Amino acid sequence: MKKLIAIICGLISSISLTAGDDFCGIRNTAFQSGEQLTYNVFYSVVGIYVNAGTATFTTGLEHVGNRPVYHVVAAGTSNSNYDWIFKVRDRYETYIDTATLQPLKFIRNIDEGGYKKYENITFNAQTNTAITNTGVFKIPTCIQDVISAIYYARNINFNAYKPGDKVPFDMFLDNEIYHLYVRYMGKEVVKTKYGKFNAIKFKPLLLKGTIFEGGEKMTVWVSDDANHIPLRVESPIAVGSVKVDMMRYTGLRHPLSSLLRWK
What we know:
The chain has 2 helices and 15 strands. The chain is mainly beta. The radius of gyration is 17 Å and the shape is globular.
């Protein structure tokens, strides 16, 4: 499946709610070192979804300089049945300051059908700059990368919003700053390939590109418990549609109390 990890990260990271100085330095209460989340990506062209790939998100505890950081690794692979069509082996990494939940470093190392790209970004909160392979860029306060945004967002107090509210956020990717938002849609029960959950629902604003249509056509559900883990993401894409479901988890900080029924 073409650009598998780009789809996975684009889908799941769209739940981020980082948005400005009010959220700087938020305290982490949602995740811990040792957590691992596994997702299956299902792709459909004619209404029948097939399992096209897998993504895992693993959290560890390390140090960058003298700072303790959460080292999060997101790895995406196409399933072996699809490798002959388009082989994907992608790896994204972020190093998140445990005190502020701001990224200090971001690495993207992708191999998609023979196309390879390596990107290494260092974030400097004191100078509001991002140093990349190609230069130094000015960034706003509290900016996130595509992976750190997921973990930062999991600590937002979702009860502070009402259905229809927009929550803006800033993201740095491919040497550009994106000013986006998500629209909080409320709470509902969602049934996934893993089970039935109480969930929080969002519709993120997407920029029109080669994969996604622009606007609020994507829907994201996260667990309505203290973990706030992404459960399901659905979206149309340029050809067909994709569905991403959480299938396995280990090392959660809190019980997954939002689970109503397994499968």
